[in-house]
Amino acid sequence: MRTDTPAAIYRKDYTPPSHWISTVEMGFDLDPSATRVATRIVFERNHAGSDRTLTLYGDEVELVQLRMNGKALAKRAYQLEQGVLRIPSAPDDVVLEIETLIRPDRNTSLMGLYVSNGNFFTQCEAEGFRKITYFPDRPDVMAKYKVMLRADKRKYPVLLSNGNLIEQGDLGDGRHYALWEDPFKKPSYLFALVAGNLICQEEQIKLQSGRKALLQVWVEEGNLDKTQHAMASLINSIRWDEKRFGLELDLDRFMIVAVGDFNMGAMENKGLNIFNTKYVLANPRIATDVDYANIEAVVGHEYFHNWTGNRVTCRDWFQLSLKEGLTVFRDQEFSADMIGTDSGRAVKRIDDVRVLRQAQFPEDAGPMAHPVRPDSFVEISNFYTVTIYEKGAEVVRMYQTLFGRDGFRKGMDLYFERHDGQAVTCDDFRAAMADANGRDLAQFERWYDQAGTPRVSVTTRYDAGAHTYEMTLVQSGASTAGQEEKRPFLIPVSVGLLDGKGRDMPLSLGDAEEQPTTVVLELKARSQTFLFRNVMEKPVPSILRNFSAPVVLEYDYTDAELAFLMAHDSDAFNRWEAGQRLAMRRLLALTALSQSGDALQVDAALAESFSATLNDGELDPAFRETALNLPAETVVAEQMDVIDPQAIHAARRFLRQSLAKSLRPSLLNAYRDNAVNGPYSPDAASAGKRALRNLSLSYLGELDDEEIHALMQKQYDNANNMTDRMTALAALANSRAAGRAAALARFYSDFEQEPLVIDKWFSLQAMARTTDVAAVRKLMKHPAFSLKNPNRARSLIFSFCNGNPFRFHAIDGSGYEFWAEQVLALDALNPQVAARLARSLDRWRKYAPALREKMHAALKRVADSSRLSKDVKEVITKSLAGA
Question: How many Å apart are CA 330 and CA 164, to the nearest integer?
Answer without folding.
Answer: 26
